[in-house]
C-alpha cells in the first residue's frame, strides 16, 4: 500500500490497515510529523505536532502549563525542546469561578508570550480551522476531543487527555498507536432538506458510539455535487462520537478552494490514499434518499429518521456549538424562519461558532431575519452545549440542538432531555414548537 505524498525516507509501517493519511504526514520545518514505527536514528517513537490547541474553560490548562515549564526549566535543563505552535481560545466567562479561571489563564499566557491568543473570538475548534496554522497534512493535538474537526480540511487532528497534553507541552512531541482505518464513501446527491449533520447521524446509527474506537475514519466525497465545507466540518467534528481517533476527509478541490479563500494560496500538503489502499472496513452511504435524522436522549447514536419520530413538544431550540454553528447553518435557519415566528412556547438560542461567522451572518442579513423571528443571539462561545453558558436547560426542558452530544445532564439539569438534529430541523422545530414526523411535510416524501 502506498500514499500519494512525500513520505520520510526509511519510514516503515507494519499495519496493513493503518490510515493512509497517517502514513503520509508531511515534514514541517524539518521536524518529523509522522506516526508509527520511526526510521533508524529517531530517538523515540514520537510524532511532532505542528499545532497545540487549548481553551480557557479547561481549568487544568494553567496547571499543566506551569508543570511543563517546571519540567523544561528546572528538571530537564540539558534537553532541547521544539514546541508546537499554540492557539488558545477564550470566551466571556458565565460565572465568577470561570472568570477566575479565565483571568488566571490569560495572565499566564500573556506572561509567557503565548502566540495566537484569540481572546473572546469564539470556539477554539472553529478558530483553529479559520487560522493559517491549520494546514492540510499537518498533525494537530488539542486539549478537547472535538479538535478532530480539523480533519474536515485534510489535517490529522485529535484531542488528548491531561497527561498526554502535559507530555506534548513539555517535549513538543507526542506518541500514538497507528490506528486502523475505516473508509466511508459518500455517493449520490444530498436532498435539500438534509446536511452533513444528517450524514454523520446516519453514520452513528450504522457504527454506534464505539464503532470506530481508536480507528481513523477516512471520508471520501464521491457525491454528485460534492459536500460543502461546512458539511464536512460537521461530519469530522462528530467522528469522535463514534470513537474515532481521527476523522479525515480525503482532500479534493473543495479542500483546496477553502484554503485558497482563507489564505490566498494553498500552503499545505494533499495527502491522498493510493487506489490499492487496504481498509479494515468500507462503508458506502447513498445520500440521494437520506432524509433528516434525529438522535434521541441520551446518546448521539440513538438515531432515528425524523419521519419515525413520535411527536415531541420542545421548550428550547439551540443552534450553535463547534458541530453546527457556522454560516451555512445560520443561513438555513434564516431561510426557514424568514417572515415567520418562533413558537411562543420555545426559546430559540443562536450562538455563532466564531465572531467571524457572526459578522458574515450579520452582513448577509441572517441575524436580522432570525432576531425578527424571535431568536436570541449570544456571543460566540460553547454556550449551552456543555452546560457552560446562556441556554442551559432546566429540569423540565426539552431541547432540540445542533450540538454534538446529548448525554444526560450535559446541557444542564439531569432531568432535561436533548435531541440532536441539523440546523434546518432545529429551526423548523422552533417554529412548530415540536419535533414531528411531518416537520418537512411541504417537501413530500423526499428522503427516508
Give a topology summary:
Layout (H helix, E strand, L loop, with lengths): L2 E2 L15 H4 L27 E5 L4 H16 L9 E5 L6 H16 L5 E2 L5 H7 L8 E4 L13 E4 L2 H10 L9 E7 L8 H12 L8 E6 L7 H9 L8 E4 L3 H11 L8 E2 L7 E6 L6 E3 L7 E3 L6 E2 L2 E4 L1 H4 L2 H11 L9 E4 L4 H10 L1 H8 L2 E2 L20 E4 L15 E4 L2 H10 L1 E2 L13
Helix pairs in contact: 2-5, 6-7, 10-12, 10-13
CATH class membership of the largest domain: Alpha Beta
Domain tally: 3
Helix content percent band: 25-40%
Number of helices: 13
Shape: globular
For CATH, the homologous superfamily of the largest domain is named as: Aconitase, domain 3
Structural class: alpha/beta
Mean pLDDT: 83
As an assembly, this protein is single chain
| Fraction of residues in β-strands | 15-25%
> What distance lies between the first and last C-alpha atoms, to the nearest angstrom?
37 Å
Q: What is the gyration radius calculated from CA atoms?
A: 22 Å
**CATH topology description of the largest domain:** Aconitase, domain 3
Biggest beta-sheet profile = 5 strands, parallel
The number of distinct β-strands equals: 20
What is this structure, in a nutshell?
This protein is of the alpha/beta class.
Characterization of the model:
The chain is of the alpha/beta class. The chain has 3 domains: 23-171, Aconitase, domain 3 (2-Layer Sandwich), CATH 3.30.499; 181-286, Aconitase, Domain 2; 294-443, Aconitase, domain 3. Helices cover 29% and strands 17% of the residues. The chain is built from 13 helices and 20 strands. The strands form 6 sheets. Strands 4-3-2-5-6 form a 5-stranded parallel beta sheet, sandwiched between helices. Strand 2, helix 2 and strand 3 (85-89) form a beta-alpha-beta unit. Helix 6 (196-207) packs parallel to helix 7 and helix 10 packs across helix 12. The chain is globular and about 55 Å long. Mean pLDDT is 83; it is low at 1-46 and 75-83.
Amino acid at each position: 500500500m502506498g500514499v500519494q505524498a512525500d513520505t520520510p525516507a526509511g519510514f516503515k509501517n507494519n499495519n496493513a490497515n493503518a490510515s493512509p493519511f497517517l502514513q503520509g504526514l508531511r515534514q514541517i520545518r524539518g521536524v518529523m510529523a509522522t506516526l508509527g514505527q520511526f526510521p533508524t536514528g529517531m530517538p523515540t517513537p514520537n510524532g511532532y505536532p505542528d499545532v497545540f490547541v487549548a481553551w480557557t474553560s479547561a481549568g487544568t490548562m494553567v496547571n499543566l502549563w506551569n508543570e511543563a515549564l517546571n519540567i523544561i526549566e528546572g528538571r530537564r535543563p540539558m534537553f532541547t525542546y521544539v514546541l508546537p505552535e499554540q492557539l488558545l481560545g477564550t470566551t466571556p466567562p458565565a460565572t465568577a469561578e470561570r472568570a477566575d479561571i479565565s483571568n488566571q489563564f490569560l495572565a499566564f499566557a500573556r506572561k509567557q508570550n503565548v502566540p495566537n491568543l484569540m481572546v473572546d473570538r469564539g470556539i477554539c475548534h472553529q478558530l483553529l480551522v479559520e487560522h493559517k496554522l491549520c494546514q492540510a497534512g499537518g498533525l494537530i493535538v488539542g486539549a478537547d476531543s472535538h479538535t478532530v474537526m480539523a480533519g474536515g480540511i485534510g489535517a490529522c487532528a485529535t484531542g488528548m487527555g491531561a497527561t498526554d497534553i502535559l507530555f506534548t507541552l513539555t517535549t513538543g512531541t507526542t506518541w500514538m498507536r497507528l490506528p486502523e482505518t475505516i473508509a466511508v464513501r459518500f455517493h449520490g446527491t444530498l436532498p435539500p432538506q438534509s446536511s452533513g449533520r444528517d450524514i454523520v447521524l446516519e453514520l452513528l446509527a450504522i457504527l454506534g458510539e464505539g464503532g470506530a474506537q481508536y480507528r481513523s475514519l477516512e471520508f471520501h466525497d464521491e457525491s454528485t455535487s460534492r459536500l460543502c465545507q461546512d458539511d464536512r466540518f460537521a461530519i469530522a467534528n462528530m467522528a469522535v462520537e463514534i470513537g474515532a481517533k481521527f476523522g479525515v476527509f480525503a482532500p479534493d478541490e473543495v479542500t483546496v478552494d477553502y484554503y485558497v479563500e482563507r489564505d490566498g494560496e494553498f500552503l499545505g500538503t494533499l495527502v491522498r490514499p493510493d487506489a490499492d489502499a487496504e481498509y479494515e472496513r468500507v462503508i458506502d452511504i447513498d445520500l440521494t434518499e437520506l432524509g433528516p435524522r434525529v438522535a434521541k436522549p441520551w446518546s448521539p447514536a440513538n438515531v432515528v429518521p425524523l419521519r419515525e419520530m413520535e411527536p415531541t413538544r420542545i421548550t428550547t431550540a439551540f443552534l450553535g456549538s463547534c458541530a453546527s454553528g457556522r454560516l451555512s447553518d445560520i443561513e438555513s435557519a434564516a431561510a426557514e424562519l424568514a417572515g415567520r415566528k418562533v413558537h411562543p412556547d420555545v426559546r430559540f438560542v443562536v450562538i455563532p461558532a466564531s465572531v467571524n461567522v457572526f459578522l458574515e451572518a450579520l452582513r448577509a442579513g441572517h441575524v436580522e431575519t432570525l432576531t425578527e423571528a424571535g431568536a436570541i443571539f449570544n456571543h460566540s462561545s460553547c454556550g449551552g452545549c456543555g452546560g457552560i453558558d446562556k441556554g442551559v436547560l432546566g429540569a423540565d426542558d426539552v431541547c432540540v440542538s445542533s450540538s454534538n452530544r446529548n448525554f444526560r445532564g450535559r446541557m444542564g439539569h439531569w432531568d432535561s432531555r436533548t435531541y440532536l438534529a441539523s440546523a434546518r430541523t432545529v429551526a423548523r422545530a422552533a417554529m412548530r414548537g415540536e419535533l414531528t414526523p411531518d416537520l418537512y411535510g411541504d417537501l413530500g416524501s423526499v428522503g427516508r
